[in-house]
Amino acid sequence: MERYYDAREIIRESLPFLALIIVFSMVTGNFLEGFAEDIIEKYSIILLILPAFINMSGSLASVFTSRITSSLYVGEIDEDFKPYRVLFLNMASMALVGFTGFLFLAFVGLSFGSAFFGISVSFSHFVLIVVVSGIVTTVLMMFVGLFAAKMTYSRGLDPDNFTTPAVTTIGDLIGTFLLILLIITYL
Amino acid sequence: MSEKGLVLSTYREITPIILLTIVAEIWVGVLLIGIEDFYELLPGLFIIVPGLMEARGNISGALGQRLGSAIHLGVVSWADKFNEEVRENVKASMSLGLLMSVFLGVLAFISSILLGFKHMSLFDFVLIAVLTSVLAGVTQVVFTVFIATYSSHLGLDPDNVTIPALSVVGDILTIVYLLLVVKFVLFIS
């Protein structure tokens, strides 16, 4: 039986992209840090929830793309992701998980923040901001994942090697930006 | 499976682990604050911390995703978790981790020169990156193979659980190993 995976093939496919992603995230990380430093000092609640926030939107979008690439491989959907029903059902599931997760994060973050760091912000505004920016980021990232899957699959590359790095890196950027933007505008 | 059934079962499989990651990530934040004490002792350290976590997450995330596909394709399973497909995947993951950490150490050294930061030697940069990455890599590879194959053995979809589980374990492991490596590097120098 023919082998599916070959270590050299995987390395050859992944290495340039991973290197590119690291350079990209180092540049944007330093840029974001410079841009957000003053804001984060003023709103310490951001610091508290940001790692969990970024992690969750990245995980949800990666799980989504991971499911889609598996469906591609077993032939449940074709190269154009048809039938779209499978796509939408998967998106709906992730959005539902995201809604629960971001709601939970807002509660935990706020309780933790007010108990240990004396943070006091408007409860309803905070919950709304976290849930809205979280779900918007996650949905955007799912499209990034689909795009990455499409671009790689149609070129004969293995999407599994590309989608998670692409999604988490771009997701970090968009998620951080969106959360901070909503917090300074509405909180 | 009915459409409503698919949404519900996915929701039920993913939600608990996602909630767990939130609690764990708050601890990651606390651990990261702990590392800040070393930033003055090893100047430039702060440049590689996000990159290290990111590289580990990307490499093991891709491994988890490939194993998920392999399990769906039926070439890997709980009973057959040490076969050639798995070994090739593990080999690739470990090599990528090693290559990326060397790259990261060099990159951090060059960028701290370019940006005019006070920094440690190239050797220290590469040593810290490689040691942390190899230690975290070995642990994470074992964990990834286990969680991907065992979750499917339990009747769960590995695509649903592997990545969230990995991201938490990976972040925590990377920081804990980094703290140990940093202490070791300070001890030998």
Question: How does this structure look, described?
Answer:
The complex is a heterodimer of chains A (187) and B (189). Chain A is mainly α and 187 residues long. In chain A, 83% of the residues lie in helices and 0% in strands. In chain A, helix 3 packs antiparallel against helix 4. The longest helix of chain A has 36 residues. Chain A starts with 6 loop residues before the first helix and ends with a helix. The mean pLDDT of chain A is 87. By secondary structure, chain B is mostly helical. Chain B has a single domain, classed as Tetracycline Repressor, domain 2, CATH 1.10.357. In chain B, helix 1 packs parallel to helix 5 and helix 2 packs antiparallel against helix 5. Chains A and B meet through helix 1, helix 2, helix 3 and helix 5 of A and helix 1, helix 2, helix 3 and helix 5 of B.
Major beta-sheet overview of chain B: none
Query: Mean of residue pLDDT of chain B?
Result: 89
State the end-to-end CA separation of chain B: 61 Å
Structural class of chain B: mainly alpha
Gyration radius from CA atoms of chain B, angstroms: 19 Å
Stretches of chain B where pLDDT is under 50 for at least 5 consecutive residues are: none
**Rounded average pLDDT of chain A:** 87
Q: Supply the helix-strand structural class of chain A.
A: mainly alpha
In whole angstroms, how far apart are the ends of chain A?
A: 60 Å
Query: What best-fitting shape of chain A do the alpha-carbon axes yield?
Result: globular
Order of helices and strands of chain A: HHHHH
- Total strands of chain A: 0
Report Rg of chain A.
18 Å
What proportion strand of chain B?
A: under 5%
Domain tally of chain B: 1
Count the strands of chain B? 0
Strand content of chain A is: under 5%
Q: How would a textbook summarize the main sheet of chain A?
A: none
**Helical coverage of chain B, percent range:** over 70%
The coarse overall form of chain B would be elongated
Largest interface: A-B, 61 and 59 residues
